[in-house]
Amino acid sequence: MTLYALSDLFSDSLKGFFVFILFFTLIERGRSTMANKQPLNIVKMKKMKADGIPLSMVTAYDYPSASLAEEAGVDMILVGDSLGNVVLGYDSTLPVTIDDMVYHTRSVVRGAGHTFIVADMPFMTYHGSIDSTLDNVKRLMQDGHAHAVKMEGGREICTAVESIVKAGVPVLGHIGLTPQSVNQIGGYRIQGKDEADAARLLEDAKALEKAGAFGVVLELVTEEVARFISEQLSIPTIGIGAGRYVDGQVLVFHDLFKYASPYRDKRFVKTYGDIGTIVRDGISQYVHDVKSRSFPDETHVFTADDQVVENLYGKGKEKVARA
Ligand code: KIV
């Protein structure tokens, strides 16, 4: 018996019922797939490196950007202290505080509860005693609900990294251009250009791996040096401006979408949209519509009952009130 012949046996309402059940089942399956989705973990990340599967990471600082990143299927979200530049309007990351990071991490976690979330340790929050460092880590993990923390620096921070890892907290290292040391580096310069610098970066990366870091961000590092470091480590390297041969990539959300004014183009960034222009043009159109009274129009308003209008304006004045 063909499917058509079979379907003739059922009434239209029965067919409708089956379609409804099928539709409902598919929707519920989709929902429960997201609800059951487990965030990536550091063991799987290492395996992904071994299997040659690249890791995707993007920064986010609030609920909507985090939800969109999760829906788009990103592997990891970084609540970066780049927050200072792109959201808070500072000219560096130095003024960002642990309270800022906790506040923004919480909103990111609310938006992306099924994604692995790394929170940045801000400037000078891991350079004092181990106790104060652990207190700051505790804030990001317990109050911010992050899965891991990121710290800038090489060998000089390895004692702190070891203590944090011993406390059970995954640490992502960050070497190359480290914006928290911009005043010492003398600007936002490409790292790993000469032999001594390449050797320094390699030693720092190895020391971080030995201290227990689960990965290392390489920022603005020459491609050859980043590649060599990636080959030498068993933990993943995540590049930003570090070329093609690292184990993953991270970009700043606001760079991906030119969400800034003015937006400054960066060679290592690929943009996927121009939110800045969309938002500026949209708001300018909105201002025009308000000034010209073309917004709101009748499709945007709520109307009261006739009796209410009559009581307010008097009988027969409804048309005037609604003109
Ligand atoms: O703060 C940040 O966004 C970062 C990335 C640039 C890696 O550290």
What's this entry about, in short?
The protein has 15 helices and eight strands. By secondary structure, it is of the alpha/beta class. The protein has three domains: 3-35; 39-256, Phosphoenolpyruvate-binding domains (TIM Barrel); 293-321, no CATH class.
Which helices and strands appear, and what pairs or packs with what?
Layout: H1 3-8, H2 12-36, H3 42-50, E1 55-59, H4 63-72, E2 76-79, H5 83-86, H6 98-111, E3 116-120, H7 130-143, E4 148-152, H8 158-166, E5 171-176, H9 182-185, H10 195-211, E6 215-219, H11 223-232, E7 237-240, E8 248-251, H12 253-256, H13 275-291, H14 306-313, H15 318-321
Parallel strand pairs: 1-2, 1-8, 2-3, 3-4, 4-5, 5-6, 6-7, 7-8
Helix pairs in contact: 4-6, 6-7, 10-11
This protein binds 3-methyl-2-oxobutanoic acid (KIV).
Report on this model:
- The chain is an alpha/beta fold and 323 residues long.
- The chain has three domains: 3-35; 39-256, Phosphoenolpyruvate-binding domains (TIM Barrel); 293-321, no CATH class.
- The protein contains 15 helices and eight strands.
- An eight-stranded parallel β-barrel has the order 1-2-3-4-5-6-7-8, surrounded by seven helices.
- α6 (98-111) runs parallel beside α7 (130-143) and α10 runs parallel beside α11.
- The mean pLDDT is 92.
- Bound molecules: 3-methyl-2-oxobutanoic acid.
- Residues 59, 78, 80-82, 120, 174, 217, 219, 240, 250, 252 line the site of 3-methyl-2-oxobutanoic acid.
- The site of 3-methyl-2-oxobutanoic acid (KIV) has 12 residues, from β6.
